[in-house]
């Protein structure tokens, strides 16, 4: 049975992918507000990515 990822893990993976593939401009400022809007999640979930590990 495959484990289900939490929303926080999913957002972390999407952010990691975006960073590694050059989706953001160099020097672009990323805020909790902009990340939560971009990934369609609450600011609480986006803030939780700070200490997340894959």
Can you characterise this structure?
The structure is a single chain. It is built from 3 helices and no strands. The longest helix is centred in the first third of the chain and has 14 residues, at 7-20. It has one domain. Helices cover 50% and strands 0% of the residues. The model has no long low-confidence stretch (mean pLDDT 79). The chain has helices spanning 7-20, 32-39, 43-47. It is mostly helical.
Summed up, the helix count is 3
Q: Percent helix among the residues?
A: 40-55%
- Overall geometry: flat
Alpha-carbon distance between the two ends? 20 Å
The secondary-structure element order is HHH
- Biggest sheet architecture: none
For this entry, give a set of tags:
mainly alpha; flat; 3 helices; single chain
In terms of topology, how is this protein built?
Elements: H1 7-20, H2 32-39, H3 43-47
Concise overview:
50% of the residues lie in helices and 0% in strands.
């Amino acid at each position: 049975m495959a484990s289900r990822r939490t929303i926080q893990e999913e957002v972390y993976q999407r952010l990691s992918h975006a960073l590694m593939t050059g989706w953001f401009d160099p020097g672009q400022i990323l805020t909790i507000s902009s990340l939560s809007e971009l990934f369609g999640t609450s600011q609480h979930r986006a803030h939780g990515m700070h200490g997340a590990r894959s």
